[in-house]
Each structure stands twice: as structure tokens, then as C-alpha cells.
């Protein structure tokens, strides 16, 4: 009988493949950085397709061909990330992974999950909120105010596109006020900002409940963005005594416990 290859054997193909994936996804070599840039550019192109999907869905066969091609790319990326992660069990427990798996399901089964296609835009959030992105594109701004601003803008934009897609999917053709994707976007923005022009108001109890949700949740994201923009910048440095991680850039003592800090900076 032929012996089964031991995955713990350094010479086994699976072990070598995992080592290659780790070096590409988590390494700092020029090759790894170029690889991650390529992955991020492909991700952004896919996200752009997701946002434009309601406008080009009528293309039929071409649209579904692109859909399945993206499914193959996303499945390969998820498999590679799983191999690159130290533990498959800890990887599968991450919420971002479950979001990506759901996005993949909507691509693999478009006929059954067509009404959930608007949730594909969540890929924008999973990309910009990942360490993978900040170790590559934003490595100079990791753990800085720029990271907080970009994440806040991304969360607000993702919310707007998801709600727009939901309104378009649920009310297009059923209510004369929503005649297209732009109308759905217009309703989302005017409701989120509580402008309240009144020219588009979703009918029925569910329409009112959706409007309330958009106003409450959307305004909270908008306020969060404003807070990040106007509040004083804080340096992330865990206090050795109490663990407080946000301090003023020139802080000498922790404001929570008074412990002496030694925050690294570029000043002489």
C-alpha cells in the first residue's frame, strides 16, 4: 500500500504550498508586496462590478459569465487565505470570513440568491477593514488617524450602497417612486441625512421601518465620521499599567492611572 503523505512533513506538497501562501499574504518581501497590491487591485475591480451590477444585469449571459468568473477568483483567494492562516479553525471563526463566504454563495447561486446580491458590496468593508489592506496599501498609515478616517468613510459608503441595493431590489417596479438605481440612491441619501424632501417615500409599514432604520443607523455612522474628522488626534500606545491605548501625542503620563509613558516619536 502507498503511504498517505504527512501534512506535517516539511517536504509534503501541502506544507510547501502553505509556506508559499504565508510568504505571499503575510511576508514583507518585494514579491509579496507586489502580489498583495495585485490582489487588492483585483478586489477593487470586483467591488466596482458589484456596485454597477444593478445597471448592467440586463446584459444576461455576459453578466452571469463575469459573475461566475468572479466566483472562481474569490474562491481561489479564500482558499489561499485559509492556507496562509496559522490555524484553519481560527480563520473560519472570523466574521469577515463569513461575510466573504456569503458573497461567494451569491455568486455561485445567482438564481436562488439573486435578491441578496446587494450584500456583495460588503466586500468593500471586509477589504478596507482587514489587516491585509493596511499592511500593503496603508502600511504608512496603519494605526494612525488616516486609518480611522478611511475606515469610517468606507463603513458609511458600504452602508449607503447596501441600502441602495436593497431598496432597488425590493421596491423597483413595485412602487412608482423607485424607477431605477439612481432613485434608490437618492432615497437612501436623503433619508440618511434626514433632509426629507418627501418626493420619494416608501409605502407601507415595512417602508416606514426601513426609513427609520436608515435614519438611525446611517446618522450614527455619519456622526462617527464627523467625530473622527474633528476630534483631536490620539496616539495608539497601550499603557503598561492599565492598558489604555489612546493618548495625546505629547502625553507623558497615562490620563487614566498616571503611569509614566514612553511613547515613541520622531522628535529629537
What is the gist of this entry?
This protein is mainly alpha-helical and 268 residues long. It has three domains: 1-140, no CATH class; 143-231, Helix Hairpins (Orthogonal Bundle); 235-268, no CATH class.
Q: What this model shows, in words?
A:
The protein is mainly α and about 270 residues long. The chain has three domains: about 1-140, no CATH class; about 145-230, Helix Hairpins; about 235-268, no CATH class. Helices cover about 60% and strands about 0% of the residues. It has a two-stranded antiparallel sheet. α6 (about 120-130) packs antiparallel against α8 (about 145-170). The chain starts with 12 loop residues before the first helix and ends in a 21-residue tail after the last strand.
Which percent range fits the helix content?
55-70%
Strand fraction: under 5%
Strand order of the largest sheet: 1-2
| Secondary-structure-derived class | mainly alpha
Please mark out the parts with pLDDT under 50 across 5 or more consecutive residues, or reply none: none
How would a textbook summarize the main sheet?
A: 2 strands, antiparallel
What is the count of distinct domains?
Answer: 3
| End-to-end CA span | 69 Å
SS summary, helix count: 10
How many beta-strand runs? 2
Subcellular location: Membrane
Membrane topology: Multi-pass membrane protein
Keywords: Ion channel, Ion transport, Membrane, Transmembrane, Transmembrane helix, Transport
Organism: Caulobacter mirabilis
Amino acid at each position: 500500500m502507498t503511504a498517505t503523505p504527512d501534512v506535517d512533513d516539511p517536504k509534503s506538497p501541502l506544507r510547501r504550498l502553505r509556506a508559499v501562501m504565508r510568504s505571499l499574504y503575510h511576508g514583507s518581501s518585494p514579491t509579496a508586496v507586489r502580489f498583495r497590491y495585485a490582489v487588492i487591485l483585483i478586489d477593487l475591480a470586483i467591488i466596482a462590478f458589484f456596485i454597477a451590477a444593478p445597471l448592467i444585469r440586463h446584459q444576461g449571459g455576459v453578466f452571469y459569465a463575469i459573475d461566475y468568473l468572479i466566483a472562481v477568483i474569490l474562491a481561489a483567494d479564500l482558499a489561499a487565505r485559509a492556507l496562509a492562516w496559522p490555524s484553519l479553525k481560527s480563520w473560519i471563526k472570523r466574521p469577515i470570513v463569513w461575510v466573504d463566504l456569503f458573497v461567494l454563495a451569491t455568486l455561485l447561486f445567482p438564481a436562488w440568491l439573486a435578491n441578496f446580491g446587494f450584500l456583495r458590496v460588503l466586500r468593500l468593508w471586509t477589504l478596507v477593514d482587514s489587516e491585509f489592506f493596511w499592511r500593503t496599501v496603508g502600511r504608512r498609515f496603519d494605526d494612525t488617524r488616516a486609518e480611522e478616517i478611511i475606515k469610517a468613510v468606507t463603513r458609511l459608503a458600504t452602508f449607503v450602497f447596501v441600502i441602495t441595493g436593497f431598496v432597488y431590489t425590493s421596491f423597483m417596479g413595485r412602487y412608482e417612486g423607485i424607477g431605477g438605481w439612481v432613485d434608490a440612491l437618492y432615497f437612501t441619501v436623503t433619508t440618511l441625512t434626514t433632509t426629507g424632501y418627501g418626493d420619494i417615500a416608501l409605502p407601507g409599514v415595512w417602508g416606514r421601518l426601513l426609513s427609520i432604520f436608515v435614519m438611525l443607523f446611517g446618522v450614527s455612522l455619519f456622526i462617527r465620521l464627523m467625530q473622527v474628522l474633528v476630534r483631536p488626534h490620539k496616539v495608539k500606545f497601550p499603557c503598561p499599567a492599565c492598558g489604555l491605548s489612546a493618548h495625546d501625542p505629547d502625553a507623558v503620563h497615562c490620563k487614566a492611572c498616571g503611569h509614566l509613558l514612553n511613547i515613541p516619536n520622531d522628535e529629537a
